[in-house]
Specification:
alpha/beta, two-stranded antiparallel sheet, binds zinc ion
Length: about 280
């Protein structure tokens, strides 16, 4: 007997409700798939031509903050070899260029991987995931991030991945954390452990997009706490988020992890907002 027979006739199940009860793989077979950008039929979320046109690999970027580097990058910075979990690993900053801003005022995080620039039309996909609950976009974001990671063979993989946590109120409103939706398939494809509750947001902050650039550092100061310190000490922690704009949220979270003994913190963000000069 199916669930449908238990429901009174006055409460018919809508097609979306029926589909929601099916495994995602089955839903994909039932629904004609169209590219989220051009609308043409395709097997995935975004068709290969749109992927090539709108999500090409980024150009030379700062290894630490993922901002584009000028045509002539500054001299490469050499940092000491880091020790993670008793095993010496080559610090990625020893072989990758770092921008002048990060050299002058190093952020709390050690490296950033960004898959694409936050620009049209991909910005619309980010909004569709976050505010339109178009969750199948998240694995596609994770695929682009995995490709960006593979393009940096000098970069050490983290020991553990965790999403930037949402505040409890925002999580209830939205029903999901878009960063976790990206982190889950990314962790699986990289073979890295995922710990969704490594950190928690202790204060409900105003969305960073809702405050001025000058207010962003203060808006997230003290907003996070380490929820599982034993998994942080001596570890290389990877932070996952959908978009990195000023970087203050990721820097605050990285500083929190460093206070609890994290050996290294690397950001993994789908999209990076280009700086405004
Ligand atoms: Zn397309
Ligand atoms: Zn930088």
């Amino acid at each position: 007997m199916t669930d449908r027979l238990h429901l009174p006739p006055s409460l018919p199940i809508s097609l979306p409700m029926r589909l929601r009860r099916l495994p995602m793989a089955v839903v994909r077979r039932l629904l004609p798939s169209t590219c989220a950008l051009c609308g043409d039929g395709c097997d995935g979320v975004v068709c290969p031509p749109c992927c090539a046109q709108f999500a090409p690999p980024r150009g030379p970027c700062c290894a630490r903050c993922a901002n584009p580097l000028p045509v002539s990058p500054p001299p490469r910075k050499r940092e000491p070899v880091a020790s993670v979990q008793g095993q010496d690993v080559e610090n990625s900053l020893a072989t990758e260029p770092v921008c002048g801003s990060c050299l002058a005022d190093p952020p709390a995080f050690d490296a950033t991987v960004a898959a694409v620039d936050y620009a049209a039309p991909l910005d619309q996909l980010v909004l569709q995931l976050k505010f339109g609950a178009r969750l199948p976009l998240a694995p596609w974001f994770a695929e682009r991030l995995r490709d960006a990671v593979l393009a940096r063979p000098a970069m050490a993989l983290p020991d553990v991945l965790c999403p930037v946590p949402l505040g409890r109120r925002r999580l209830v409103e939205r029903g999901f954390n878009q960063a976790l939706e990206i982190a889950r398939p990314l962790a699986a494809s990289l073979g890295v452990a995922l710990h969704p509750k490594l950190a928690e947001r202790t204060t409900e902050t105003t969305a960073q997009s809702g405050v001025t650039p000058a207010e962003r550092a203060g808006n997230v100061r003290g907003a996070f706490a380490a929820a599982d310190p034993d998994r942080i000490a001596g570890r290389h922690v990877g932070l996952v988020d959908d978009v990195m704009t000023s970087g203050h949220t990721l820097a605050e979270l990285a500083a929190t992890f460093k206070r609890f003994g994290a050996a290294r913190v690397t950001n993994f963000v789908f999209a990076r907002t280009p700086p405004h000069f």
